[in-house]
C-alpha cells in the first residue's frame, strides 16, 4: 500500500480557507457526515409490514429469473431456493418467505471503505452519510460547448473537481462514460483516474466479470494484496434487470467483488409503470425484493461481504411515457424505503440530485432538491448522484456539478440540525442590550460569526443594485466561472512514484493483451 | 352576503382539464390540503423544554416593550403583567412563566376562514395546509420588463393568476405593493381586488388601525355584518418589531381584527445576528416568545379570536451581513418551530418559497425548495409566500410565481404520502406477466395511469433532441409564456352586481373622505 499522508488533504481547499474565498466552511469539513438529525419516517408499522409481506410474496410466488449464470442458481438451490429451469440459460428461482432475510443476516450493518488516504476512509451504514458524484452518463455538457459525448479528459476533470471539493466524500465510479476509450479498456483508465487524481474511496467496474476482477487487481497494486483481502477498498454498483431479472454479467460481477471481500451496491432502477407497478407502494415492494435477492448473491458467495441495499425509484410523464426524475412521488417513496432498509439493518443507497432538465436552470434545482432532500431525510448512507446529474442521467453537467457541490456543503449544516445548549440558546445575547436593539455587536454574535451559517460559494445575496451593476449574472453562469477556476487550480494528491509506475504498468499490459472493442 | 355558487369554481381550470392541457391534475384539486404524512420532528423532549424555558425567561426577565398603545399595556397589567413605564410612549412588560401560555388557552386550535365561495372555505390548524401567495414586495419583475415598482395592475394580475391556479387555496394579502395608489388608500383597492377577482379567502390591511377597520367593514358589505360577527372571513398578518418590541400600529391592528372576531397572524421576522441571536436555538426561543405575546394581545381583546402562531427564521451572509433566505439553518429551525407550535396547540404559519436570487434561476428554486420543504414537513398550516418570492422579498416575480405554483401542485401529491392498499401494492400487476416483462399494458397501469403521478405544467421531460429542436427553452422562459397565456384566459368569478356596487361605493366614499398621502 502506498503511504498516504493526512497532510495531503491540504491540497483540497485549505489554502483557500485561509484567505477567505467564497464557499469555505472549514468547520463543516469532515471525511463523511454523521447525521445529527433523525430520519423522516412517514409510514406506520402496519403499512410497512404490508410492503414487506408483498416483497416476500414476490420472492415466493413470482420469483427472480437468473440468466447465464448457473453457479449463482446452484448457490441459491443449495440455500433452499426452488429452481425451475426455463431454458438453457434461464432459471426461475423462488424463495420461501424469510429465506432471503435469513441469508442477509451475515451482512454487516456498518463497514469501512478504505481510501488510499486513510483520513478519507468512510464508514458505510448506521448514521453515516457519504456524498458521491453522479454515475453513468454517456454525455457531458457545459454552457460553452453544449452537449457532447464524454471523453477520458471529461472523466478526469470530474474526478479532479470532486477531489477539490470538501463537500463530496467519495470519488464515485463512472462519473461520465469516456467514450473515446474502447469499451473493453475504459475501466482501466477510469480506475486509474480515481486512484491517481483523487485520494478518496471510489467504485470499480461492473460491465464484465473480468473488468470487475481488473478493478480489484489494481487495488491490490495500490493497497497491497493482504490489505485488500482483509478490508473493503472498492465497491461495485450493480443494477438488477427489472422487473425481477438478474443477468449473468451482474451476478458474476457481484460474486467477483464479494469473493475478494469487496463491497457491492444492489440497485433496482424502477421506472414506475414500465418495469414496476405504477403505484409507489408496489414499486417499493418490488425494489425491496430485487435488492434483497441481489444482496443475497454476495452473502452466499462470501458471508459477511459488505453490501448496500439500494433503490432508484422513478416516475414517468403521463403524457409521453418518458421517465421523470426529481418528482414528488418517488421522493415520498424513498422515505419509506429508508424505513425498510433500517428494519433489515443494512446500509442504504437511495436517490440523489436527480433532474430531467437539459440545463442547470430552475427545473434542474427544483427537481434535484425534491430528490436529494428525500435521500437526506430517508437516512440514505451512500448518495450516488450527489453532483452533476442532468438530462435524465444522460448528461453530466459541469455547471450542475458545481451547483450540487454547493448544495452538498449546505447539507453538511442541515445534517447537524439545531444544536441546543446554553450557549446556542443565547439568552445573554438578547439580554445584553434588551428590546429594540440589534445584536450585531454582541459577544455572542462575534463568537459565532464564522460558523453559524453555511457560506455558499455560488449564491448571490447582494442587493439587487449591486447584482445589476455587475452584469445580472445568473447562478449557472457563476457555476461556469467556478468550475474553470477550480480546474485551473487543481493539484494532484501525492503518490509514491513506484506505486504510480506499477499501476500504469498494469494498465498498459492489460490494454496490450486485447484488441480494442467498441461495443 | 352575496350568494356564491360552488359551480363558480368551474372558471378555474375545469375546462382546461377536459381537453388535457399540461398541468391539469383534477384528482389533486381540493380547497385546502389535509396532510397524509406525519410531521418531521427532529428534536427530543429535553431540547424542546430548554427552548420553551428560554422563551419563558425572555418573557419573564427581559420582557416585551410596547410602544404607543397604553390600552394594550393596560390589558396586560390587568392580566398580571409587570409593567415598567420607560417614557411617555414606551412600556416594558414582563410576564411570569406560564402566564402567556395560560392566556393562549382561549385560542382555537382549528378555525374556519370563510370565502365568498363556500367551496373555497379553509380550515386553519390541525392537519390542514393552506398555500397563499407571497406578501409585501415593493417591486415586481418579469423576464420582459425586468424589475420595477409594483402597480395596482400588477396586484390585480397576481390575484387573477392565483385564482386561476388550483394549487393555491388562499388569495393572500399584499401580493405586491400597488405603489401607484396613495399609501392611505391602497388597502381599499387591494381588498376590493381580492374580493372581486378571486373567490377565495384573503388577508386585509394592517398598516394602520383605521385601514384594518376598513378591511373588516368591506367584509361586512360582502358577507353581511351578522355573518362577519360570527365567523372569521378575513385575517391580518402582523409583524413584531424584533427584538422584543411591539409598536402601537401593530397592537391596535391586532385588537381591531380580534374585536371583530377576525383572524390574526403573529409574525416575528428574525434575521439571525441582526435582530435575534445568531444561533438557531436562540432565534427559535425568541420567535416563540414574541409570537406568543402577540397572539395574547388578540386573546385579551376577545378571548377565542382566531390566531396563528408564526415564524420567519432567516440567516445572513457571513461576508456582507446581507440577509439570506432559503438556507439550511432556518430550514431545520422551522422543523423545530413546528414541534413547538403543536405543543401550544395553535395553528402555524412558517417559511415558504424563499430566495435571495434576482432571477427565476437555479438559485431561486434551490433556495425555495430548501425553505418550502421545511414548511411542508414542519406541519405549517398557513404557508404565506408559497408563490412569487424573489430578491429577498423585495420583488414579486411573474415567472417565479408560475414555477412556485407548479411546485405547489406537486406538493399536493407529496402530502398524500405513500398509500398502501392491496391495489397500490400491485402484486397482481407484477404477477400478470412475470419477470422480464414490462408493465405498460397491465390492467393496473391502465387503471392508475392518470392519477399515479403529478403532471407538471412546466417541467421539460422530453428527449434532449426534441428539446433542442424546439429551441432549447429553459424553465423560466416556459413560465414567462405560461403566465401570459393564463392572464389572457382569465375570467372573473361571478358576483352579485348589487354587492359589487356596494363595495365600489364604499371604496369611492372612503377615498373621497381623505387627501392622498404618499408615505
Automatic annotation (TrEMBL), chains A, B:
Gene Ontology biological process terms from the UniProt entry: methanogenesis; methylation
Pfam families, per the entry: MTTB
Superkingdom: Bacteria
UniProt xrefs under Gene3D superfamilies: Trimethylamine methyltransferase-like
Protein name in the entry: Methyltransferase
GO molecular function term, any single one: methyltransferase activity
Chain segments annotated as transmembrane: none
UniProt-annotated stretches for the region Disordered: 1-31
InterPro entries noted in UniProt: MttB-like_sf, MTTB_MeTrfase
NAD in keyword set: no
Amino acid at each position: 500500500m502506498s503511504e498516504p499522508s493526512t497532510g495531503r488533504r491540504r491540497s483540497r481547499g485549505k489554502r483557500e480557507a485561509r484567505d477567505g474565498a467564497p464557499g469555505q466552511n472549514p468547520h463543516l469539513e469532515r471525511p463523511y457526515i454523521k447525521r445529527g438529525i433523525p430520519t423522516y419516517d412517514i409510514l406506520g408499522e402496519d403499512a410497512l409490514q404490508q410492503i414487506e409481506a408483498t416483497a416476500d410474496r414476490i420472492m415466493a410466488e413470482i420469483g427472480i429469473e437468473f440468466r447465464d449464470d448457473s453457479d449463482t442458481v446452484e448457490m441459491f438451490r443449495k440455500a433452499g431456493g426452488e429452481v425451475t429451469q426455463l431454458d438453457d440459460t434461464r432459471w426461475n428461482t423462488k424463495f420461501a418467505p424469510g429465506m432471503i432475510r435469513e441469508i442477509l443476516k451475515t451482512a454487516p450493518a456498518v463497514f469501512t471503505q478504505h481510501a488510499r488516504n486513510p483520513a478519507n476512509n468512510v464508514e458505510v451504514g448506521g448514521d453515516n452519510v457519504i456524498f458521491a458524484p453522479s454515475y453513468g452518463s454517456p454525455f457531458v455538457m457545459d454552457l460553452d460547448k453544449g452537449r457532447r459525448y464524454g471523453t477520458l479528459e471529461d472523466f478526469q476533470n470530474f474526478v479532479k473537481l470532486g477531489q477539490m471539493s470538501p463537500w463530496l466524500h467519495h470519488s464515485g465510479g463512472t462519473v461520465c462514460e469516456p467514450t473515446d476509450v474502447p469499451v473493453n479498456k475504459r475501466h482501466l483508465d477510469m480506475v486509474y483516474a480515481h486512484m491517481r487524481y483523487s485520494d478518496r474511496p471510489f467504485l470499480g467496474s461492473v460491465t464484465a466479470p473480468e473488468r470487475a476482477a481488473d478493478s480489484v487487481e489494481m487495488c491490490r497494486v495500490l493497497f497491497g494484496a493482504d490489505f485488500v483481502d482483509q478490508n473493503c477498498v472498492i465497491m461495485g454498483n450493480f443494477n438488477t434487470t427489472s422487473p425481477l431479472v438478474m443477468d449473468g454479467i451482474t451476478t458474476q460481477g457481484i460474486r467477483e467483488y464479494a469473493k475478494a471481500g469487496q463491497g457491492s451496491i444492489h440497485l433496482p432502477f424502477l421506472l414506475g409503470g414500465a418495469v414496476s407497478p405504477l403505484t409507489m407502494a408496489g414499486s417499493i415492494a418490488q425494489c425491496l425484493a430485487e435488492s434483497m435477492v441481489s444482496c443475497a448473491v454476495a452473502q452466499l458467495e462470501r458471508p459477511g461481504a459488505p453490501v448496500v441495499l439500494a433503490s432508484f425509484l422513478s416516475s414517468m410523464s403521463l403524457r409521453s411515457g418518458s421517465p421523470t426524475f426529481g418528482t414528488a412521488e418517488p421522493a415520498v417513496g424513498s422515505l419509506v424505503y429508508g424505513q425498510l432498509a433500517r428494519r433489515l439493518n443494512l446500509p442504504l443507497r437511495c436517490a440523489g440530485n436527480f433532474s430531467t432538465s437539459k440545463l442547470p436552470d430552475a427545473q434542474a434545482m427544483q427537481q434535484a432538491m425534491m430528490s436529494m432532500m428525500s435521500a437526506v431525510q430517508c437516512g440514505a448512507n451512500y448518495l450516488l448522484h450527489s453532483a452533476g446529474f442532468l438530462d435524465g442521467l444522460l448528461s453530466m453537467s459541469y455547471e450542475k456539478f458545481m451547483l450540487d457541490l454547493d448544495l452538498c456543503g449546505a447539507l453538511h449544516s442541515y445534517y447537524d440540525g439545531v444544536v441546543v445548549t446554553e450557549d446556542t440558546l443565547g439568552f445573554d445575547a438578547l439580554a445584553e442590550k434588551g428590546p429594540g436593539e440589534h445584536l450585531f455587536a454582541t459577544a455572542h454574535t462575534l463568537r459565532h460569526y464564522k460558523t453559524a451559517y453555511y457560506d455558499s460559494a455560488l449564491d448571490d445575496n447582494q442587493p439587487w443594485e449591486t447584482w445589476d451593476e455587475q452584469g445580472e449574472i445568473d447562478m449557472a453562469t457563476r457555476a461556469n466561472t467556478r468550475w474553470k477556476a477550480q480546474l485551473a487550480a487543481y493539484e494532484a494528491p501525492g503518490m509514491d512514484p513506484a506505486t504510480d509506475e506499477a499501476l500504469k504498468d498494469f494498465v498498459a499490459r492489460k490494454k496490450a493483451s486485447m484488441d480494442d472493442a467498441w461495443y
